[in-house]
Amino acid sequence: MSAEATNPEAHPEARPELRRRGRTRLDLRRLGRAALLGPTSRDRLPDAIGHVAEAHRAHHPDADLSILRRAYLLAETSHRGQMRKSGEPYITHPLAVTLILAELGAETTTLTASLLHDTVEDTEVTLDQVRAEFGDEVCFIVDGVTKVEKIDYGAAAEPETFRKMLVATGNDVRVMSIKLADRLHNMRTLGVMRPEKQARIAKVTRDVLIPLAERLGVQALKTELEDLVFAILHPEEYESTRALIAAHAGERDPLPGIADSVRAVLRDAGIAAEVQVRPRHFVSVHRIARTRGELRGSDFGRVLVLVGENADCYAVLGELHTCFTPVVSEFKDFIAAPKFNLYQSLHTAVATPEGYVAEVIVRTRQMHRVAEAGVVALGNPYATATPDAAADPDEERVDPTRPGWLSRLLDWQQSAPDPDTFWSVLRAELAQDREITVFRADGGTLGLPAGASCIDAAYAQHGEAAHGCIGARVNGRLASLSSPLSDGDTVQLLLAQDASSGPAAEWLDHARTPAARIAIGSWLESHPDRALSTTSAARAPLSVVGARGGGGNAVADLPDATVRLAGCCTPVPPDAVAGFLVRGGAVTVHRIHCAAVAQMRAVGRTSVAVHWRATADCRVTLLAESFGRPHLLADLTEAIAREGVEVVSATVEPPVEQRVRHTYTLQLPDATGLPALMRAMRDVPGVYDVSRA
Q1: pTM of structure
Q2: What is the pLDDT of residue 323?
Q3: What does the DSSP assignment read for 598-664?
Q4: Cys-Cys with 627: which of 100, 305, 600, 686 at CB 3.0–4.6 Å?
Q5: Catalytic positions, written as ranges
Q6: Is 197 helix (H, G, I), strand (E, B) or coil?
C-alpha cells in the first residue's frame, strides 16, 4: 500500500488524482458473492481470499497459507447471514481489513487474527474455540481486539474505548495494527452513515487514531486516514485541493524529468538505485499550498531514491548536492537521528537549471518498508519466545517492540481520575510529535516529549516520590525544576528529606507529560491548604552583615585608589584578575573570566593593573544550597567557625519548595584553605552544594 497516493473511497470523484499504481481496489460486492458461495476444495484457497494470499506471498514467499484458509472458513461460516450497513455481506469487512495488513507485510499470525477479529464479538464463536483451532498467539490477539471494540459507555464511550485499546496494545502492538486497519476500512465505507455520525467518527480518527498511526510509524494507514478525514470535516477545502490536483494533472509535470536526471547522475556515479516519483496525498498538497501560496509543478510530489545500504544513502546525497544546487535549509538526517516512530531517511531539496525545486527522499529498501508499515513491518515480536510464552491468557506480558511513549501512556492511564481527564490528556500527549532522550545520574535513560522540563523527568523517574523534588542538576549544573531539557542532557534530581513535601501549583505551568500533570493535580486537590501556601508572597531574606569591607588583599597600581573586590565573581588569591576604574575613583577587581570584564571593556572603562599582596588572607563569597531543616544556619556557621574563617555577611533566603539558599561573604586567613572550607560546608547534613558566587 502506498503511503503517498491514497484513495478516499467515500469520494469517488477524487480517484483520478489518487489512483494507486499496481493492484486495484477490491470490488467488495464481488467478494461478497464469492464469500456466499461457501468453501471450495481443500487443495486451494477460496477465491474470496485469493487477493490476501497473493499480497501475503509477495512479502512472505514461504508462508503457510493453510491457517489462513481455516481462519477464512470459520469467519465466513460464523458471519454468514450478517450484512453491513453498506449492503455487502459482513465477511467483506474482515477480508478487507486483512488485505490492508497483507499489503503492509504483516506476518501470518496477524492476518489470521485479523480474519477472526470480529467473530468473538459478533458471533457465537468463543475464545476457547479460537485457541483450540489456531493456538494461543492468535487467541491472544483476537481477545485484545475484542476488548477494544466499542461498547455503550454513553458520553464516555470513545475515551473508555481508547483506554481499553491502549491497555490491549501495550501487551501486543499487533492489536493496534488490526484496529487501525479496521478503522481505515470503516472510514472508506463511511458514506452510508448520517453526516453527524460521519463527523463524530472522523473527529475521533483525527484526534487519536491518526496520531497513533503516526507514532507506530504506519504511514500508509496514516496518510489515507488523513485524506478521508479531510474530505469529511473540511469538504470545501477538500474540493479546492481536489480541483488544484486535477488542474495540475492537465499540465506538464516536471518531476519525471527531474527523476530521469537523478537516475543519470547516479548511474554515472556507479550507484545502484531505484528512483520513483511519489505524488503527494491531499492533505500534504493542502499543507504545502497554505505554506507556499501558489504551487509549481514540482510541489505536487517528491522524488524517492531507494538504495541497498546505509552508506549508499550518503553517497547519493553527495552526488545530488554536487550535481544540483542544494537547498541547505531543507536537509534533514533521520538516519543518524531516527524519529521516535522508527522512521529513517535523508531529506533534501535541490534546484534544477530550469528553476524548479524538488524535494528528494533517500532511504534503503528496508527503511522504506519500515517507513510505510512501521510496527507492522517488525513481524511477530514473540517469534523467538518459548513455545509456552503465551500459555496463560491472563498473564501480563511486555511486547519487546513496545515504544517508550506507549509505556508512558500505559503508566499514566491508570491514574487518570475520570474519562474526560484521560481524553484531554491523551490528545495532548499524542499532539507531541518529537521525543527526546535524557540520561539519569545512575546511567539509565528517560524518554520524554520535546519541551519537557525537570519536573517531567522527576515524575518519570520517581513517580509520586517526585512530590518532594526541590531541584536538579542538568549536565552537572544546578537548575530550577522549570528548566526545559534537551536531547542528550544528563539530569540528577534532588529530593527533599521531608516526606511531607509537596509540589507547588506553579509546577503545572511547566509540566508537559500526562504523568506529571495528573500526579500534581491530584496532590493539589487533596491538599488545598498546602496548595494555597505555596503561592503566598515570599518573605524578605534574613541578612546578617559584619563590619568589615574593602578590597581585601588586592592592590591596584593607582596611588590612593580605593580597591573593591567585585561581588559578582569574588576573586581570591591566586585568581588571575583585572581592575577597572569606576565612578568615584574606585577600582573594582574581577576574575579575568568574569562576564563583567567584557562589559567593562565594551563601555570603555579604564583598565588598571592589580595584584595580590604577599599576605595570604582573602575575602570570598560562597553560595550554599540546602534542604530546609531546623538549626541549619547554626550548623553552617559552626562549620565555618571551625575552619577559622570570619563571616563578613550572610543572607539566608526563605525556603522555596523545601530548598534554602545561603549567601556568605567570608574573610579567610589563608586562601589555600578555601577548598577545605567548602568541603566542610558540604559535609553539613542537608547541604547538597557549595559554590563560589
Answers
A1: 0.63
A2: 92
A3: HHHHHTTPEEE-EEE-SS--EEEEEEEEEE--TTHHHHHHHHHHHTT-EEEEEEEPPPBTTEEEEEE
A4: 686
A5: 121-122
A6: helix
